[in-house]
Amino acid sequence: MLQISKLNAWYGASHALQDISLEVARGEIVCLIGRNGAGKTTTLKSIMGLMDRTRGSVIFKGKELLQQPAHIRFALGLAYVPEERRIVQGLSVRENLRLGLVASAEKKREAELIGEIAMIFPRLAERMDQEAVTMSGGEQQMLAIARAMIAKPDLIMLDEPSEGIMPVLVDEMFELFRSMKAQGTTVLLVEQNVELALDIADRAYVLDQGAVVHQASAQDLLADDEIKERYCSV
Ligand SMILES: Nc1ncnc2c1ncn2[C@@H]1O[C@H](COP(=O)(O)OP(=O)(O)OP(=O)(O)O)[C@@H](O)[C@H]1O
């Protein structure tokens, strides 16, 4: 579904990604791991079209995306949940969910899709008319994921979804990722909790200093203490 080859990205003169190549097949959960500053967030931003300067190739569902703006990539079925969530202050949970459909071809089915999301996210269903920023951090993270899911993306990219969230909600969230996978959604996950991420992932790429230094099945990497110690914050 996603084939990235020799992807490079820059922040000004700083060469942040160097010849990143990776693939995500339909229905997989693929995880990017690596220490702080390894280039995980920059990889997701480059795939979504949020970096000013990139070079290489990002092919999604057979189309080259690298010259396309983010809204076109979104319309083609890519979604991105950034670490900072971007829940809109002053809007209810329902209104935040509606924002996920503003640029979507599915907008006319808004009420039906909000109903479907409410079934998947019972915590949000109970809070539809509450101001979204008054919810806990974990509930806001659920909302950010729900807002990305509502337009039914083919591939969802999640940046550190468990960051700063209480363990009970993290467990609930990872259960949700399993059920997303069971329903055919493809997931590219950046997660600092390596053990948790590898537990649900099919495969993983290890990044270091802007390059892919290792790739393996999640199962093999889970058992590889040397790689985990060398490249991950475990
Ligand atoms: N806005 C920016 N301007 C300049 N350099 C940046 C910017 N954002 C990130 N970088 C640099 O790019 C490199 C990759 O950062 P990136 O955020 O992609 O890493 P990461 O693996 O996601 O780490 P983290 O877990 O800390 O978010 C780092 O050296 C970082 O300092």
UniProtKB/TrEMBL annotation:
InterPro entries (UniProt xref): AAA+_ATPase, ABC_transporter-like_ATP-bd, ABC_transporter-like_CS, BCAA_Transport_ATP-bd_LivF, P-loop_NTPase
Keywords carried by this UniProt record: Amino-acid transport, ATP-binding, Nucleotide-binding, Transport
Identification of the protein by name: High-affinity branched-chain amino acid transport ATP-binding protein LivF
Gene from which the chain derives: livF_26
A molecular function GO annotation: branched-chain amino acid transmembrane transporter activity
One Pfam assignment: ABC_tran
Presence of the UniProt keyword Nucleotide-binding in the record: yes
Annotated function: Involved in beta-(1-->2)glucan export. Transmembrane domains (TMD) form a pore in the inner membrane and the ATP-binding domain (NBD) is responsible for energy generation.
Any one biological process term the GO annotation gives: L-amino acid transport
Superkingdom, natural source: Bacteria
Family: Belongs to the ABC transporter superfamily.
Source organism of the structure: Bradyrhizobium ivorense
Ranges for domain ABC transporter: 2-234
